[in-house]
Design a protein that fits this description.
The protein is built from 3 helices and no strands. The protein is mainly alpha-helical.
């Protein structure tokens, strides 16, 4: 590959990375300018205030109170069959590599007489 071709390729890669970073910056800037983050935080606050009022009403009514009934868990699970398979594969690979490394060091220890 010629030097000129390498420079053109590097410039092309650099310009694409720069363009991707600029687009990401614009997306974050627009979401911030439109107040998307503040809107999400406001929704969480309103939901929390509703649960506080519900809790206070249940206490005033003398109902049995359990904290689990008032906690809002809105963390979605992104786990699917492919991610489960990848997790299982990495766990098995980890145990295989770990046993290989342990047996290698045991062998080296026996050779050195320790």
């Amino acid at each position: 590959m010629k030097t000129e071709d390498k420079k053109k390729l590097c410039n092309k890669i650099f310009s694409r990375i720069l363009l991707a970073l600029f687009i990401a910056f614009l997306a974050i800037y627009v979401s911030s300018a439109t107040g998307y983050y503040e809107f999400e935080q406001h929704n969480k606050m309103v939901l929390t205030e509703e649960k506080i009022r519900e809790f206070e009403q249940d206490v005033a009514d003398g109902k049995e109170v359990d904290i689990k009934n008032y906690i809002v868990k809105d963390t979605p699970s992104y786990q699917n069959n492919l991610s489960k398979l990848g997790n299982s594969f990495s766990t098995h690979l980890e145990s295989f590599v770990q046993s290989g490394i342990e047996s290698t060091f045991k062998f080296i220890g026996k050779l050195l007489g320790t």
